[in-house]
Amino acid sequence: MVMTTNTTATNTTTANTTTANVTATNGTAANGMAANGMAANGMSDSGAAVGTPAVAAPPRLDFAKSARNVFRALIGFDAAAREGIDPALVELIQIRASHLNHCAYCLHMHTNDARKAGESEDRLHMIPVWREARHFFTAREQAALALTEAVTLVADGGVPDDVYAEAATHFDDTELAHVLALIFTINTWNRIALSTAKQAGTDTR
């Protein structure tokens, strides 16, 4: 009886120990599989995604080289549009349109051009909020800025009659036509720069 009991106890202990070892071993294997699974899924041990190298965007075409005649025509259009317009007003129009179109390349270029022409930092900073800082701008400049916004955002509601009428009180027909032409050209330049991914600060003029 005693030996039987001891044998039974020993067997039970052995079985339990074996079961525990097997369980521990399986648990370790399972944990290893889980860890491997996370690695395979691109996850770190902490559960954070493992970063992958960013793929560089393919280079885009150089518009000036790829469409030389079109580019020259735009240069000519731009030059003709500026005729008879105060250079300071030219830059105000180009800067405001570039703000609205989120064109960093043109914005960098024309704010620098404005500074070189003697424009003040105060006025440059106030252009995006000119309606709240009217005392920085003449009535003529305000009318041109309002027209620039309306034409640039034409899809939002056309060019309102009151905006056009206000501009017409400050510019004669020839001047107004040139202001409109300048707005057309800067919007075209903005779209070229954005479409071809031009980087701000790379102007080589």
What do these coordinates show?
- The protein is an all-alpha fold and 205 residues long.
- The chain has helices spanning 2-40, 63-66, 68-82, 87-100, 104-116, 121-126, 139-152, 161-170, 173-195.
- Helix 4 (87-100) runs antiparallel to helix 5 (104-116), helix 4 (87-100) crosses helix 9 (173-195) and helix 7 packs antiparallel against helix 8 (161-170).
Rg over C-alpha atoms, rounded to the nearest angstrom: 35 Å
Helix content: 55-70%
Order of helices and strands: HHHHHHHHH
Which shape, going by the Cα principal axes?
globular
Strand content: under 5%
Major sheet size, sense and barrel closure:
none
End-to-end C-alpha gap: 106 Å
Low-confidence parts lasting 5 or more residues at pLDDT below 50?
1-44
Mean pLDDT, rounded to whole units? 82
Structural class: mainly alpha
Q: How many β-strands, per DSSP?
A: 0
List the total number of helices: 9
Write the layout of secondary structure elements.
Elements (H helix, E strand, L loop, with lengths): L1 H39 L22 H4 L1 H15 L4 H14 L3 H13 L4 H6 L12 H14 L8 H10 L2 H23 L10
Helix pairs in contact: 3-9, 4-5, 4-7, 4-9, 7-8, 7-9
Write a concise synopsis of the structure shown.
Helices cover 67% and strands 0% of the residues.
Give short descriptive properties of this protein:
205 residues; disordered N terminus; mainly alpha; globular
